[in-house]
User: What shape does this take?
Amino acid sequence: MLQSTSPDAARPGLHVAIIMDGNGRWAAAHGRPRAAGHAAGVSALREVAETAPALGIATLTVYAFSADNWARPRAEVSALMRLLQRSLATEVDRCVTNGVRLSIIGRRDRLPASLARAIAAAEERTADGRRLWLRVAVDYSARDLIRRAAAAWVGPRPPTREEFSALIGEVGSAGGAPDVDLLVRTGGEQRLSDFLLWECAYAELYFTPRMWPDFDAAELGRAVADFRRRERRFGGLPQAAAG
Ligand code: FPP
Assistant: This one.
């Protein structure tokens, strides 16, 4: 007998992307240093990743560090790099247990060598995870990836959309991912900030004023429920009019 573990189990898995914004403001509101906000952000991410499969999410891509974040004060950049490395060490066992495949997308050549090694080790250890593909964007710029993918293309004709998607995946180190179904941004801002520009061509957008450390399983559930109510037309007509 076919058994369903969740109401969404029969549907193809969603690709949800999250811009985890508001860690600094959350920390200020709690009278704590910005680094404490980022650390609280890791806990929020853990909760979200653990909830995602039951909501029908197969791929989750989160923005941890943009290529433009190098412009932040050196102390904050170092704190973020250390947090990433520490989190890889502490979370990788949990990923293996929960069937999470972890990939880092973005550039690696500008990361501290020890972090780059930790990334490679974590990716190898979690490579068999099948419940959730968790892609963490680090030193990431969508425009840079698109530019580099265009430069890497060799052929007598322009690439098809599928070929170009695969190329962006290769250039971004993790292989091609499906288009994004739902993009969530926390922290009240409503912009894309150079995140997944190619993959979000038809993404539904969900903005919440909640700061990222306060984002939790219930809020993710609300975002997905909101997404399920939307009619996606991909440039076509509404279902009623298409008759
Ligand atoms: C944006 O908030 C958040 C970041 C630049 C960092 C996000 C990183 C994490 C949540 C840690 C991720 C860790 C792992 C292991 C994936 P902000 O600093 O821009 O906040 P603000 O807009 O309130 O100043």
User: Anything to note?
Assistant: The longest helix spans residues 74-97. Residues 20-25, 38, 41-42, 45, 64, 69, 83-84, 87, 136, 187, 212 surround farnesyl diphosphate (CB under 6 Å).
